[in-house]
Write a structure and sequence with these properties.
By secondary structure, the chain is an alpha/beta fold. The protein has 28 helices and 11 strands. The chain has helices at about 30, 50-70, 75-80, 110-135, 140-160, 175-185, 205-220, 245-250, 265-275, 285-295, 300-315, 315-330, 340-350, 355-375, 385-395, 400-415, 420-440, 445-460, 465-475, 485-495, 505-515, 545-550, 555-565, 575-580, 585-595, 600-605, 620-635, 670-675, and strands spanning about 1-10, 15-25, 35-40, 85-95, 105-110, 170, 255-260, 530-535, 570, 610, 615. This is DUF262 domain-containing protein.
Amino acid sequence: MRTIRSAYDPIRGQPSKGSIVESKTTDFLGLIKGPRQYRVPPFQRAYSWEKEQRETLWLDILDQYDRLSGIWSDPEREKKLQSVPGHYLGTVVLAGPSALGVPRSDVIDGQQRITTLLLLLCALRDVRSRSELNARGTKEEREARASSARARVDRRYLVNEDEIGSDRLRLVPLAADRRVFEAIIDYDGARSFSPESIGLSEIDSKRMLQAYKFFHTELRRQGVNAEQAPQLVRFAGCFPLDLEIIEEVITRRLTLITIETANLDDVNSIFESLNAKGRPLTQLDLLRNYLFMLLGSKAEAALGEHWSLIERNLHRPEQVEGLIWAEVVSRGTNILQKRTYRTVQAELRLEGGTPEATEAYLKSLARKSALYAAIVHPERESNAGLGRAFARLTKAGGVTAYPLAMWLLEQRHLGHLNTYQVVEAIGWIESLLVRRLLAGLPTNTLSSIFGSMLSRLHGDLSGVEDRLHRLQMSMIHNQRDWPTDAVVAAGIEQEDFYHSQKAAQRMLILSTMDHALAPSTVLNYGETDDSIEHILPQSREAIEWISDLADIGEDFQEVQSRWLHTLPNLTIVTPSENSALGARRFASKAELYEESPYKITRDVATRYQLQTGGNDHWGASAIQARARDLTALVTSIWVRPEYDLAEPPTPGANDQEFDVDPGEELVPFTTIADELDPSEG
């Protein structure tokens, strides 16, 4: 055993005096033998190992099995085992143990490995029990042997035999994993075993059940099919497995280094410096650890009241991490997402790092998680117009604008804006995103652009009382962020629209233009490239097109090279029509376009084509004409703000307080705002 009496202090940035960290090397049996209990603390992520991690561990175990099986029947087995190196599983970091009752330790790092090995032992128990039931002997003898086999594994590895209640289990996972883990521990091997049979809900993790079934299947494997399991070919001679040897490998041939300390500063320092095998710690992992370390004795209560609310609102860890980043930026601190943990850590240090300050932050975050949920799950938003605005924002590629959307919702919460104004402002954000996409401007600066807007809102412009006017001033502070109409026009003619960003963004632009051309028509639009038709075809060998364009003095390949993927050469069709149209000559396409439900496509057949010798033609002049029309349409829908910064917008005569006249020129995106009654607050 090694004792370290000085460890890094994450609060002071220097070694903490008088701290004791104990380190030792052990096998899995030495770690898990009871009575003992390991608890997964609230700041840890739920069980997250997937197929790749499970298979890696299983192959390591099979490698040890292969080494042992050759000497297992040797009379000098124990002596020869000493010369066979075990498999090193890494470091396990523990906080504790408790002084009273069953020794308890919190698992700071290593819970994924501990949990997986216990699930493997559960599968081993159940496979061995089933083999005993199928062995020779009377029914009573077989059932007795099966029961004895189950009890031995439970007693040695899984439960504290003389304890009841929460002290019974050797491992207590997080709430999301607890139901399925206890069900696997208590499974009797007789009944069916599925998410439904053990009553799992949507919030319960199913990864543990997947891991258990994986190992249960592998332990019963009789041979190796090289095509189905090529990774097992080198172990083909090991199957079927001897379960006694497998148990020896799991419990005695897997070695770990355990580090245990009772000093919370040391725990956080060690946690920050470690990466779980195969799954690096995320900003969320690090921050959750730090928050619950600061909460101390209040951690369990805070988990149940605040953190659980966050996880109910946002089901996926990446969404929770996005919330924390967006919340920081919405308050005017312009950071990249990878700096979230360090920023919140520094803020809490300035507040003294007390449990009270930490709980206040967590309580505020839980409240704001409902705001963020409305942005990332717009279908949950009770106001239909606002839900549509958020759905459009996401389709427009507005993830980097989520902090600004959160600021808007927070201003509504505080009574400074109403719902109509929030919808209007979301339209401005969409306008910026669409114009930049059409102009071919890079997206890697968007996070900085929106972060700078929020910094100005909380900084130089914080004295502007009217929140909507404050936002307008911040958004146009840097005119270079907003492409002019001329820049948008050039982008429409020159940029590769078909391959720009994501299909949902492209279809948002095309469908919005179509709706603007026929506002009374309500249609469903696809969100994939299957709904986007190249009028001039992509094929380089379109013989009829080559001939048709030659008739009007144009070179097909030159026109194709210049215009193929630009916006004016694209339109909307159904996926089935797209595959059928292909490289048909334009006259044939135009017949189908005329019957299209989409106005933007019908116009292609009736407004732009040249007629020579009775045939319709789609060449450079037609595409240029359509480019001009689409530019006028685009710049009227997604407007670039142009107004006097000295005066806030004047409300219309019939507007309620905080409302903006939906008819004035300051509204850049009327197709959203017009769907919402301006009197909605």
